[in-house]
Amino acid sequence: MTKYIIRRLLGMIPTLLIIITISFFIIRIAPGGPFDSERSLPEQVLQNIEAKYHLDEPVIVQYGRYLFDVLRGDLGPSYRYQDHDVNFYIFTSLPNSIILGIIALTIAIVFGISAGMLSAVRQNTWVDYTTMSFAIVGISVPLFVIGPVLQWIFAMNLGWLPTSGWIDGDYGLKTLILPSITLSLGYFANIARLMRSSMLETLRSDYIRTAKAKGLKNSVILFKHTLKGALLPVVSYLGPAFAGIITGSVVVEQIFRVPGLGKFFVQSSFNRDYTLIMGVVIVYSVILIIMNFIVDIIYSFLDPRISYK
Amino acid sequence: MENNKDKVLEVKGLQTYFKTDSGVVKAVDGVSFDLYRGETLGIVGESGCGKSVTNLSIMKLIPSPPGKIVGGEVIFKGENIIALPEERLRSIRGNSISMIFQDPMTSLNPFLKISTQMVETIVLHQDMSKSEAKKKAIEMLTLVGIPAPEKRIDSYPHQFSGGMRQRVMIAMALSCNADVLIADEPTTALDVTIQAQILELIDELSKKLNTAVIMITHDLGVVAGMCDKVCVMYAGRIVEKALTEDLFGKPFHPYTSGLIQSVPRLDHATQEKLFSIEGQPPNLIDLPDCCPFHPRCHKAMDICRSKYPKLTEVEPGREVACWLYMDKGEDK
What we know:
The structure holds two protein chains of two kinds.
Chain A: H1 2-29, H2 43-52, H3 59-71, H4 86-121, H5 126-140, H6 143-157, H7 177-203, H8 206-213, H9 218-246, H10 250-256, H11 262-270, H12 274-302
Chain B: E1 7-20, E2 23-36, E3 40-44, H1 51-58, E4 67-76, E5 79-80, H2 86-92, E6 97-100, H3 104-107, H4 114-125, H5 130-143, H6 149-152, H7 162-174, E7 180-184, H8 192-209, E8 212-217, H9 220-226, E9 229-234, E10 237-243, H10 244-249, H11 254-261, E11 312-315, E12 318-320, H12 323-331
Parallel strand pairs in B: 3-8, 3-9, 6-7, 7-8
Antiparallel strand pairs in B: 1-2, 1-4, 4-5, 9-10, 10-12, 11-12
């Protein structure tokens, strides 16, 4: 097992290198550059700026320079925001996204798994229909509708919660409630549906029939015999879901004014802010790779047929 | 054998229907048989004739919906199992009546150790602590011929071969001294060499523990080798009931003789093609009130097409549902 973990950790290095390389060149293939704007700059100014950021060098030299900086843990200066470098922007906003993401995902997991189990056990009853209709709503109604509707009900009409803001403001932890619920809804719906279908499949399997034939109680059959197997598809969904949710959602961040990482995904690419794009991509990839790794480890604990050597 | 005291299970007019979109499937329609202590009863028939449904109904394990036991009784120790509340049923399942299934590869829970699966059954039904139950489980594994059971009991099912898993299933099924063991095609998924071993094991253990066995199979060889009595099922009904040697010696129902003839035999040096029963089993939805076998029967008469022949005793201990013999009975 230890050997396997070490091998997997070492395997992350080439994966990440490939991601960095491909992103680096794709960004530069895309038309337009960080300093092209509607108002064209004087030739001399442009040249000076490009020289400052080494954009006048051949691409391959830029690539080598960038790789060298990344290895030292420096993601470089932002081409757009002059005040700080990319490291600063990412490491001030990422923790906020992580806080919000973990809360939202916890809500989604707890309610999603319970709802999925419940509707599988009560298949084709009103419980099942209600839960699954709710899940369909969660999947199909976009965040930019759910967010404002929740704000309108709970902030503007009932006045229970603030419309927006963050935990360092006047409203403190209360600010987390609406954005995390909004963010969790889609994940909740997916988890509930996955859990329901894998639960139904497991309940129909031969070994559950054996368990029934042994005279076991329904609760024992459900929690001891069914749950582990039914969780596997949900666990594999959670890897990428976790990476996605903790790197932030642009829409939720905009609606609730959350100072998260998500907005940089969009803004950096509009601005052709090469280094910021790269920084965001690297952070996302690292989290995704780690999450998939963790999922594999959890798998081996859930399923004895999987063993890593 | 006719001694009523030794009757462990009595199935009377069992009817299990499945509701489907295209109609009601009468999977089991009026099946009756008696099972005596220590005896092995074979239930044979083609796929889909209702053998497995009959036996799942005995345990009341029919997935519902769509399945439903709509009529009949299953009398076990003076009680009608069908009418029992769920809690009482659970104390019978796996304890007094236990089952082994067709595919040992999927019938054991792959996520739990063998010890967990065996111990939970024993603790549930017997007044034992976990450590006593584990001892009992190891004892059972020894009995079914698992080598080094003290070690192997802590393995997971995937660490066993198919034959070994079926042995584990048998050990588990018999660990609570069941009165009735229902074996639903226990060897169909196994290699031929392993098949014989498993059958011998069931035979030997049931004799040793005085357990009555219901052996569901489509393999007449299994019936000939193991069973005392046979029920031949066709389209959800029993068409012939007889002692094994009588059935093979002189099959009455044309379907039975067709089945027997379609078994390849080594002692008949032949170049000719193996006999087969022409046609397909009937659709069990909206079965008309006639002999369901008549479209495939060489001896079909007019009456076969219009009226269902009731299962009737034509010789002592032999019952058959066929107009060929009913006439005889009526003439006498």
